[in-house]
Amino acid sequence: MQQPSSITDPVALHPTIFVIYGITGDLAARKLIPALLNLYTKRLLPQRFAIIGFSRRVFSREEFREFIRGRMNVRPGQFKEEDIKHFLDHITYEQGMFDDTGAYARLASKMKGIDDRWGQCSNKLYHLSVPPTLYEKILSNIAHSGLAQSCDDGTGWTRILIEKPFGSDSETARHLDKLLGSLFKEEQIFRIDHYLAKEVLQNIMAFRFSNSMFEPLWNRNFIDKIHIKLFEKNGMEGRGAFYDPIGALKDVGQNHVLMMLAIIAMEAPKSFRAHDIRVERAKVLSKLKPMNSRSINRHVVRGQYMGYMQEVGISPSSQTETYFRIQAHVGSSRWKGVPFYLESGKALAEAKAEIDVYFKEDKRLRAGAAGTKENRQNILTFRIQPDEGIRVRFFVKKPGYDFTTESKTLKFKYSEATSFDIIPDDYERLIHDAFVGDQTLFASTDEIMASWKFIMSILNNLKQTQLKLYERGAGYIE
Ligand code: BG6
User: Fold this and answer.
1) Does residue 179 lie within any of the structural domains?
2) Would you say 285 and 447 are in contact if contact means Cβ atoms under 8 Å apart?
3) Which of 116, 236, 278, 369 has the fewest beta carbons under 10 Å from its own?
4) What is the pLDDT of residue 8?
5) 203/150 same-domain check
6) What is the CATH number of the domain that holds 284?
7) Which of 60-74, 230-244, 334-348 is predicted least confidently?
């Protein structure tokens, strides 16, 4: 993570052109435009910046401005009208088909025109805001039109932001990586997993490595199990056609859930620089024990919510999972024998992302604590969203004449802490970090490959699992 001076000082940022390939799509509307507007109003973009939207749709200049305006998601009174107007002045449009080389040549000349106006060669940041099936086409056209090159005089960089899903299996991920690697160096490639940008997930590292009361216990001698949850209440919300060929394991398992595991289980990095952190995250992921045809039955539960097949875009005989629970193991001396439960689903009772760390029961002091084993354990919970915070369950003596203990909770809630209530949006953070060149919150190629390897060991043995139907709003799937 880089030093704050470069983060907060826009003057330190070189002029930059940000090209959004597929600006008319859903992601640009929901995430990118609002994030850029927020960064702009916080004065976190370079003083000289231009956004160019590239897409198939035909717009007049005015129509495009109106279109973007409509996608900003601004609450009344949130920003000054003048700020919005100035922000819009930075955005222009280039219409073109993604496979038309002429359109890329026009884009290149438009960018050259901006550089000439600024009198210097600027940074170029590209975001592929398109379905992954278009990545290859766009990437090769970027290459052929010279857009992948950085400034000749070394004054400006070129970087690319690429969204998940990064490939649809190990093979296609390797292929995409090779293609990217032939055009860009690793330090130019920013592979987005927006969970990495979630504040509490980042806080886990700070919490683990700056509180000496927890880190010594962070191993198999003291930790009984770790439960990682990414629960959603929503079903498909119109994304059925995208989701059905993918399913929960690929949609959030291969990326968000495994990244949570990487952070909670990683060894202390040599330094807090991006490279060292990414190396440690990748190491943990590469130590995940793959499933085989025997273990999968005991260690993986897959489910589909009732009514899923009736949703728009879903095959009426779909066998796609909308829920999974995996008992994973990390084959390192620190974690030998400690189960990591990875659980995620759509249409569940609650929407929350959190990690529970269960400490082993200390039988010597467990005087009178009743109930199941879990009721007698200390639990440290990182609540990633909503209601961001950290809590610890501990035991105290109940007032009275006998010696019985009762559980209580110590809580730290972001919303109750002064200066912790404003949490940057994930995409704001990611775009910002791409501008300043900090890759900490982006996945490395080793992390991607290691997570695919683990997920593929499940996908290749799916026949050995049964798809269980669950009711919408279910709390636990047997
Ligand atoms: C996306 C998945 O990557 O993450 C979605 O494609 C999922 O299916 C989403 O809903 C969850 O992200 P968040 O930030 O809303 O928890």
Assistant:
1) no
2) yes
3) 116
4) 53
5) no
6) 3.30.360.10
7) 60-74
- Tell which of 144, 163, 182 closes a domain: 163
For this structure, is 256 an active site residue? yes
Q: Taking all residues of the chain, what is their mean pLDDT, rounded to a whole number?
A: 92
Which residues' Cβ are closer than 6 Å to ligand 1? 194, 232, 251-252, 353
Contact 232, 301 (CB under 8 A): no
- If asked whether residues 358 and 449 sit together in one domain, one would say yes
Domains in the chain, number: 2
* pLDDT tens track for 361-404: 877 655 555 556 667 899 999 999 999 999 999 988 889 998 88
Same domain, 242 and 113: no
Residue 1 lies in a domain: no
Q: Cα–Cα distance between 228 and 358 in angstroms, integer?
A: 11
- Residue-wise pLDDT for 327-343, tens only, equals 999 999 999 999 999 99
From 232, 233, 237, 250, mutation site for ligand 1 pocket: most ligand atoms within 8 A of C-beta: 232
Same domain, 295 and 443: yes
Q: 207 with 353, same domain?
A: yes
Give mean pLDDT, residues 190-200. 97
- Together in a domain, 22 and 127: yes
104-153 pLDDT, tens per residue? 999 999 999 999 999 999 999 999 999 888 999 999 999 889 998 888 77
Please indicate, yes or no, if residue 391 is contained in any of the structural domains.
yes
- Please check the confidence at residue 203 and state whether its pLDDT lies above 90: yes
* Rounded distance from Cα 228 to ligand 1 centre (Å): 15
Cβ–Cβ < 8 Å for 245, 322: no
> What is the atom index within ligand 1 of the atom nearest the CA of 426?
14
Both 145 and 206 in a single domain? no
Query: Range of 97's domain?
Result: 16-163
Q: What is the pLDDT of residue 340?
A: 98
223 and 159: one domain?
Answer: no
Structural domain contains residue 173: no
Sign of CA dihedral 52, 53, 57, 60: negative
Q: Which of 127, 256, 299, 432 is catalytic?
A: 256
